Amino acid sequence: MLHLKTITKDNWIEAISLKVREDQRNFVATNAVSLAQLNFLENFHAKGIYFGEEMVGFALYGIDEDDHEYWIYRMMIDEKHQGKGFGKESVKLVIEDIKNIKEERHQTITLSYEPTNTHAKLVYEKMGFKEVEGLIIGDEQVSRYYF
């Protein structure tokens, strides 16, 4: 069963060791970059996605300083664990975690992805995210989940 665990001094090396497939490298920043970015983000959470005791993925999410809503900045599943349904289940875990910590005023979860990443688009759509028509940020399509 998949579950989330906060990235700490005890598991950060494991987190930065995770990699996506070669053909996906342009879709997502490395986990090392995400953990460095965490130093400059308030109200953000870096979580390892675990299958049992093994970290199989990584997520970075929190309250965006511009719109004050939740954003998923990063979501990845290690190349060795792709194709097992972990992506969809991981998105569900992150949505549940945000639901548990959000305040009443938070109405959405937003994310973005490369338009050519058709697999990510499909996974997010299956989990209830809807593309925000005409909203592209840095060449990435924006998609939003409404509570």
From TrEMBL:
Entries under InterPro entries matching the protein: Acyl_CoA_acyltransferase (IPR016181), GNAT_dom (IPR000182), MshD_Acetyltransferase (IPR050276)
SUPFAM superfamilies referenced in this protein's UniProt entry, alphabetically: Acyl-CoA N-acyltransferases (Nat)
Keyword tags: Transferase
Sequence ranges assigned to domain N-acetyltransferase in this UniProt record: 2-147
One Pfam family of this chain: Acetyltransf_1
Domain of life: Bacteria
The protein's name: Spermidine acetyltransferase
Organism: Ureibacillus manganicus DSM 26584
